[in-house]
Design brief:
The complex is a heterodimer of chains A (804) and B (88).
Chain A (H helix, E strand, L loop, with lengths): L36 H6 L8 E6 L19 E2 L19 H10 L16 E6 L7 H8 L8 E4 L1 E2 L12 H17 L3 E5 L21 E7 L15 E6 L11 E3 L3 E3 L8 H15 L5 H11 L11 E2 L5 E2 L10 H9 L8 E5 L6 E3 L4 E8 L12 E12 L6 E6 L5 E5 L11 E8 L9 E9 L11 E13 L22 H4 L43 E5 L3 E5 L6 E4 L4 E4 L4 E4 L7 E4 L4 E3 L4 E3 L6 E4 L4 E4 L4 E4 L6 E4 L3 E4 L2 E4 L5 E4 L4 E4 L4 E4 L7 E4 L4 E3 L2 E3 L6 E4 L7 E5 L4 E4 L6 E4 L3 E4 L2 E4 L8 H9 L6 H6 L1 H5 L3
Parallel strand pairs in A: 1-3, 1-4, 2-3, 4-6, 6-7, 7-8, 40-43
Antiparallel strand pairs in A: 9-10, 11-12, 13-21, 14-21, 15-20, 16-19, 16-21, 17-18, 17-20, 22-23, 24-25, 26-27, 28-29, 30-31, 32-33, 34-35, 36-37, 38-39, 40-41, 42-43, 44-45, 46-47
Helix pairs in contact in A: 2-5, 3-4, 5-7, 6-7
Chain B lengths: L8 E8 L3 H11 L2 E6 L6 E6 L25 E6 L4 E2 L1
Antiparallel strand pairs in B: 1-3, 1-4, 2-3
The chains are: A alpha+beta (804), B mainly beta (88).
Chain lengths: 804, 88
């Protein structure tokens, strides 16, 4: 009944009838509401028990449409460093943004106020972090608020959309993203949703925004009610999907809650698209709370649809997904997502495969295009890195160029799909180029990774340029993310509960079955040829696991299914005598026999200790764990302990001390370690210890010297007095009080003032305030001791009050 | 000046110091910083502020507080700059 009767749901919220993007029943208008949110509600999904927070300028928690769903545990004020994220109210109403976004997610339904949120039963919070200095710390703190409690973080902000900025998360924020993905939601991964950008009119491109092109964020764009491109929309290859938003003047707008308990349809921009998708993901998590961060992205790819969205770049990639640089895989479909979510099997582990073409500089000529190709197996040689089915693809480039905005960059996959990583940007005249900037594309999702990838850089000058100054592609790295098995194939390892028919991929084997005593097969003879790996005792079927005995080695057990193999897989060694694959010792990837000391190489996370040929997860002192070789390699003398690299010391041998992560000879006092010469060289005579030869490189001062800012002097300069200093053996020059040239210590101890000031009671007063009416008269007043009288003091301030 | 935008340096630092909160407090006191605590859920990362450094400067000013960058106990230190962020 619910399905058939769309008017089944009706709310008393005053703006319910204006919410065309959720329902449009009036048959008269050509309205379309293809996000199918109503249908998801009719199936009972409204975001119950799911927690969403808005990273923005605060949330008006007592707004009548938010109060009931407001969750203080999903909130914090990073700008003010307290637990109250209420926006700062000001005359210009600057801080409306967070409250508007929050309402899109979880405005209360049927409360006779304003609107209905997409997930009107979800918990909603706000993190106030934009209303002040936004630094790397502020962003990292905001993304790491209660990662085990908050499911979804929604952000509708980013670097300037001015068409010439290239900026993204700092090192801390990148770590916060990774931390959230690894540990958030108790290991399922936090969900980060980002609005793609409003720089359409400035010709901006969201590949230059490091937040939307980060693989850990879901980048969402906007379309208008009629499926047109809004004037503000930016394009890029990392956009995953789109939602309705306000658009052209003749099309209907999105209605939002507003600051000061208001309601408005005045909002325009791509901001609302992020909270709308955050709300839809809340419905999906209610349908299946065990979805990982990648499951959610797979669901978006799988269920979003182009419907009536107008774009001239729709293309179908080799996996059959339809995708556009404007709208990603299309308009989100809430109902399809919740239906898929209910029966979703978590996708296999994410693998990462990096490939760097041969390093050589490639010049980019104006008016021409440069192609650089790389052929990859998808790292099939390493089971832990093997990518066969693609998800995100990242290209990291180091490009020098006189005018960055003239560049267009495309990536062509082995299947021939072409993704535009960067379009020209008219306003970007920077000569900075791209320094290890990471472009990301989702357009190859589901395609196979193996084959030749081609990076194409087209340089078309938009203004007259010096043709001699060439750009050049110094280096680029192709980073493939995906899985080694087909994520949707019911037969793939993590789905099937039936017996292993093929030889499973190596990484499943490492923890494979113990060998069982061999049982005789009770089989009938067959007339068809046996598998090539079968021995001379025939077989009970055509496959390698139907053999009665093996030519080379047998692997597996009766329980898990036994098969004949030419070589034993990783984690096992070939027992020549019994012609069986026997398991190596824990942690070994290859071994000569089964004891701990027979390891030849180690599994990921273990390292070969060459001293005893065993695999351990930590290396002995004096050795460090080399990730690539998975071996314990010796630290470089004079490192006693090192980290990740032989020369990144964490402890030094006798006679050396650490400077950063380098062991430098311990130089005696009065000398410093000269890095270039690798010797101890003398400090300046005024220094006791120093960081270099100059007099401004002292750390501690020599005997009888005083620290003046970062130099050592014998006497303090005017305006300073010498005094004790905390934490250092020598004295320091401390500044006298304001306008005083010499003093004997802190506070009012001045003995001489600056020009234009008079010394009055050991403090300096500007002359304008303390003058004499008449010098001769005042001398007389003073000699007749009349200064005690207040009247005379006012006439002769300087003479009477000066005690010089 | 990066693409029309000049960095604004604050008196806040992010540092990575192993050894726990006490160790971080000790290093902070040694160079005159105040330790404002761990940064979100980033282990061993701390938020320091230096009251004797100007709150906003066009350049990263040198002084005794700069020595923290060379302290062997400090694996990494980053003076915070203001990042221009716009709402969409």
């Amino acid at each position: 009944q619910a399905q058939s009767d769309p008017s089944f749901i009706h709310f008393n919220d005053p703006k319910w009838s204006n919410m065309w993007y959720i329902h449009c029943n009036d048959k008269s208008s050509r309205c379309r509401s293809e996000m199918n949110i109503l249908a998801a509600w009719q199936r009972g999904y409204t975001g119950k028990n799911v927690v969403v927070t808005i990273l923005d300028d605060g949330i008006e928690m007592n707004h009548p449409d938010l109060a009931q769903n407001y969750d203080h545990l999903a909130s914090y004020d990073v700008n003010g460093n307290d637990h109250d994220p209420t926006p700062r109210y000001d005359s210009r109403n600057e801080n409306i943004h967070g409250t508007r976004c929050a309402g899109e997610v979880a405005a209360v339904a049927n409360n006779s106020h304003c609107i209905v949120g997409v997930a009107y039963n979800a918990h909603i919070g706000g993190i106030r972090m934009l209303d002040g200095d936004v630094t790397d710390i502020v962003e990292a703190k905001s993304l790491g608020i209660r990662p085990d409690y908050i499911d979804i973080y929604s952000a509708s902000w980013g670097p300037k959309d001015d068409g010439k900025t290239v900026d993204g998360p700092g090192p801390l924020t990148k770590q916060a993203f990774e931390q959230g993905i690894k540990k958030g939601r108790k290991g399922l991964g936090s969900i980060f949703v980002w609005a793609s950008g409003n720089g359409g009119r400035q010709g901006d491109h969201c590949s230059c925004d490091g937040y939307t092109s980060n693989i850990y964020t879901i980048s969402i764009s906007s379309t208008t009610e009629n499926g047109n491109k809004p004037w503000y929309l930016e394009v890029c290859s990392s956009i995953m999907a789109t939602t309705y938003s306000s658009g052209e003047f003749n099309e209907r707008k999105i209605v939002t809650t507003d600051l000061r308990q208001h309601c408005t349809d005045g909002h325009t921009g791509t901001s609302v698209s992020a909270p709308i998708v955050a709300g839809i993901i809340a419905l999906v998590l209610e349908a299946n709370l065990l979805l990982t961060w990648r499951d959610v992205q797979h669901l978006l790819v799988k269920t979003s649809r182009p419907v009536h969205l107008k774009a001239d770049d729709w293309m179908i990639n080799a996996a059959g997904h339809t995708v556009s640089h404007l709208y990603g895989f299309g308009l989100v479909d809430a109902e399809a997502m919740v239906l898929e979510a209910r029966k979703w099997m978590t996708v296999p582990h994410q693998h990462t495969c990096s490939q760097i073409p041969e390093r050589r500089t490639r010049y980019i000529h104006a008016g021409q295009s440069l192609n650089s190709s790389i052929t990859t197996t998808g790292c099939s040689e390493d089971p832990e890195q093997h990518v066969d089915y693609l998800e995100h693809v990242v290209v990291k480039v180091l490009v020098v160029h006189p005018r960055r905005g003239d560049l267009e960059i495309n990536l062509i996959s082995p299947s021939g799909t072409r993704s535009q990583l960067l379009a020209k940007r008219l306003f970007d005249s920077s000569n900075e180029g791209f320094r290890n900037w990471e472009f990301m594309t989702v357009h190859f999702w589901g395609e196979r990774a193996e084959g030749t990838w081609t990076l194409e850089i087209i340089d078309s000058p938009s203004k007259l340029r010096n043709a001699e100054v060439l750009g050049n592609l110094k280096e680029w790295t192709l980073i493939l993310y995906g899985t080694s098995q087909n994520p949707y194939q019911p037969g793939s390892a993590q789905h099937s509960h039936s017996r292993m028919l093929e030889i499973p991929a190596p990484e499943e084997i490492l923890d494979g079955p113990e060998l069982d005593e061999e049982d005789e097969y009770n089989v009938t003879q067959t007339s068809r040829p046996c598998h090539s790996e079968c021995g001379n005792q025939a077989c009970d079927g055509p496959k390698a696991d139907h053999c009665l005995n093996c030519v080379h080695f047998s692997f597996g057990s009766l329980k898990s299914g036994r098969t004949c193999v030419s070589h034993c897989p990783l984690g096992y060694y070939e027992d020549i005598v019994s012609r069986r694959c026997r398991r190596c010792y824990k942690g070994c990837e290859r071994c000569a026999a089964r004891s701990a000391g027979d390891c030849l190489s180690c599994r990921r996370g273990f390292y070969l200790n060459i001293l005893n040929s065993s695999c351990t997860d930590t290396c002995p002192p004096g050795y460090f764990a080399d990730e690539n070789q998975r071996q314990c390699l010796k630290c470089l003398d004079p490192c006693m302990r090192c980290l990740r690299y032989a020369d990144r010391c964490t402890a030094c041998r006798e006679g050396y001390s650490l400077a950063g992560m380098t062991c430098v000879p311990e130089c005696t006092n009065g000398t410093f370690f000269h890095l270039e010469e690798m010797t101890c060289s003398p400090c300046h005579s005024s220094c006791r210890t120093c960081t270099g030869p100059g007099k401004e490189e002292c750390i501690q001062c020599a005997e009888d010297y005083l620290q003046q800012e970062w130099r050592c002097v014998q006497t303090c300069i005017p305006g300073y007095y010498s005094g004790e200093a905390a934490g250092v053996p020598h004295k320091m020059c401390h500044r006298c009080e304001e306008n005083c040239l010499s003093c004997s210590g802190p506070g009012t101890t001045c003995t001489k003032c600056k020009e234009g000031y008079s010394l009055v009671s050991r403090t300096c007063i500007v002359n304008a305030f303390c003058n004499n009416a008449d010098e001769v008269f005042c001398e007389m007043v003073k000699s007749n001791r009349l200064c005690e009288k207040k009247l005379y003091r006012q006439f002769c301030c300087r003479t009477c009050l000066m005690n010089g | 000046v990066v693409s029309g935008h000049r960095d604004v340096y604050t008196n806040h630092w992010a540092v990575r110091i192993t050894g726990g909160q006490e160790q971080a407090d000790k290093i902070a006191a040694k160079y005159g910083y105040m330790n404002l605590g761990q940064i979100g859920s980033l282990d061993d990362h701390y938020h320091f502020r230096h009251s004797r450094v100007v709150r906003r400067a066009a350049y990263s000013l040198k002084g005794p507080h700069s020595f923290i960058h060379m302290d062997p106990e400090v694996e990494w230190a980053q003076q915070q700059v203001v990042k221009p962020r716009v709402k969409r």
